[in-house]
Amino acid sequence: MTMIFDKNLKHDIIKIIEARHHDPFSILGYHDSDNKATVRAFLPDTEHASINDKFTMTRVEGTDFFHWSGEKTDIQWPYKIHRLTHAGEQLAFHDPYSIMPQISEYDLHLFSQGKHWHAYKMLGAHPHEIEGIKGTLFATWAPGAERVSVVGNFNQWDGRRHPMRVRGGTGVWELFIPEIEAGELYKFEIRNRDDGSLHLKMDPYGQQSELRPGTASIVTKPTKHHWQDDDWMDSREHADWLHEPHSVYEVHMGSWKRHHDGSFYSYRELADDLVPYVKEMGFTHIELLPITEHPLDISWGYQTTGYFAPTSRFGSPDEFRYFVDCCHQHNIGVLLDWVPGHFPKDAHGLAKFDGTALYEHADPRRGEHQDWGTLIFNYGRSEVFNFLLSSAFYWLEEFHIDGLRVDAVASMLYLDYSREEGQWLPNEHGGRENLEVIEFLKHVNSVLHKEHPGCIIAAEESTSYPMISRPAHMGGLGFSMKWNMGWMHDILEYFQQDPIHRRYHHDSLTFGLLYAFTENFILPFSHDEVVHGKRSMIYKMPGDEWQRFANLRLLYTFMFSYPGKKLLFMGCEFGQGSEWNCETALDWYVLDYPSHQGLKKLVADLNAVYKETPALHAHDFDPHGFEWIDCNDRERSILSYLRKDGNSFIVNAFNFTPVPREKYRIGVPESGSYEIIINSDSAYYSGSNVHNEAVINSDDIAWNDRPFSIEVNLPPLSGLIIKKQI
């Protein structure tokens, strides 16, 4: 090394060469003083280098470090460095180390405070242009790093070539690399400050990922999708979701249908097939199991590595936009399962991102889910808080998603969730509630509802934690709705009983009404109920084949008339026989059989009646919308109740045994003519078709504490939905 460098600069050059310099911009790039200018560059695999193919750069002896000194007037930005590789290839590029910082101090301040709703626009990889020079601006958060580099095919995955600059004490690193275009694979190579360990990581804010088993992030093209859902978005903003029908079809995109060779349907193919099917079936929303990028198919997406990336299994981000747009143009909402409760330990992901417990808690008593083998976010850290908040905004804003179903909320709320004594740490007051999570959920729900009126944020929460779906300003967590896990478990346990024993379990049918209006409940029969040995819905039902289908038709009729919004997992609507298997398509062939086809027809008709009848949906969350007719006929296992909306009402009656009940009298509030609008026993649904008159006239016979009554034949294992004629 020649003596033109002072001792400090020599030391810095060595650190650049060894890829451990925390501030490469202080050494590399263009520097001037008085009338002199200097350009320095580290150029591995270089035979010769010059500036603008005019001013020859000098190699520091024994290294790949090059420099040039001259008059300030000799070169100006934008200059190019030309180099000849050892293989004889001529290359030229604009010097990234001559470029000023691009991220504003205001953005950095908001991010550090946890208040940057759109941090995904600041961090990650974004096509960018500076004074006519096109390239990509990379940025990531790694406060524990001594050095962070961008690596990819463009630099032979060599962490020495493109070290980033750190922005003060924020822990944010950035680098604009000219000539890097959309479509490039990249990762961040991070050298830990304390022990010098190297960590090769995908981009936490990356908006597209390599198809598994590859784990690189992809510089994403600016969207070219032209949205055509203005009418939907305008109507959503003014929607009264509390009083509107809400019937959800839960879908795993990888196994709804597949090609004959077992390959996945693309987002576009799903738009072409799934959307018409859901419209035919009458569901108001599709809820997608997580399509956020994940490494393992059999995790169903619940072990997320890409919180900003639609999985590449089914296509590009714009193709996913096409899917959502198609749904909206057919008046179908799209909800997305979102997993802010935990993340996997995969080495390329968030775990120990900069060599420290950055996104997760360092103490495993707060930072690790022992049951799931995953890590728990450190919600008390502003930048982690911001990461998740920004992810929620991203899906609603960039993809027009209509809402989120937040997974495993119970595991987030309780510090002792699935832990033994000594395996958890209490909060500052000595309690078991995770106070940081509570504040996080309140904030996220509040700002999302404020900024995106009409969006739905639903909680999958299985405990009695109070006020999950009450506004944050009233002391609640601010969710729109909560899954009614208690009702689901009670009802499925009841239906699995042999009908001869159901009279001993009658309270399982009625208990749910004691708390039905304490939250805004969704009634879910989800994917979790048809896997891991729990059996499919049809094989949860007792009896022979006829009774199983009759029971399931009865169950769905009961569900669609019961207070609460509805959710049904794919395949359950036609009685798939096998448990759900995420690695194969649904058993569509069973629709060749009348019983399966009949069940599918019933679900479609239930959706239609539910949507068209305000009494069945307008007061799902209001006790004024429900009234028992008779909840005490346990000996015959019969229930009857009213659903109401103002002056209109619907009579609902259910026979939970295979014994027909002829001339069964039901009290009604008004005299007049009644008609059965849903009979789950109809031959149209492959039922036994027990006869009832087309028009049922009321009698002036007081019954069930009502002035009038009607007489019907209750078919075996059936539900009747009855409407007064106008």
Automatic annotation (TrEMBL):
It is an enzyme of class 2 (transferase). The keyword Plastid does not apply. Pathway: Glycan biosynthesis; glycogen biosynthesis. Gene3D superfamilies: Glycosidases, Golgi alpha-mannosidase II, Immunoglobulins. Its EC number is 2.4.1.18. The active site is at D407 (nucleophile), E460 (proton donor). It catalyses: Transfers a segment of a (1->4)-alpha-D-glucan chain to a primary hydroxy group in a similar glucan chain. GO terms for cellular component: cytosol. Coiled coil: none annotated. Residues 250-617 form the Glycosyl hydrolase family 13 catalytic domain. SUPFAM superfamilies: (Trans)glycosidases, E set domains, Glycosyl hydrolase domain. CDD domains: AmyAc_Glg_BE (cd11322), E_set_GBE_prok_N (cd02855). It comes from the Bacteria. One of its GO terms (biological process) is glycogen biosynthetic process. GO terms for molecular function: 1,4-alpha-glucan branching enzyme activity; cation binding; hydrolase activity, hydrolyzing O-glycosyl compounds. Keywords: Carbohydrate metabolism, Glycogen biosynthesis, Glycogen metabolism, Glycosyltransferase, Transferase. NCBIfam families: branching_enzym (TIGR01515), PRK05402.1 (NF003811), PRK12313.1 (NF008967). Monomer. Belongs to the glycosyl hydrolase 13 family. GlgB subfamily. Catalyzes the formation of the alpha-1,6-glucosidic linkages in glycogen by scission of a 1,4-alpha-linked oligosaccharide from growing alpha-1,4-glucan chains and the subsequent attachment of the oligosaccharide to the alpha-1,6 position. This is 1,4-alpha-glucan branching enzyme GlgB. It comes from Methylophaga thiooxydans DMS010.
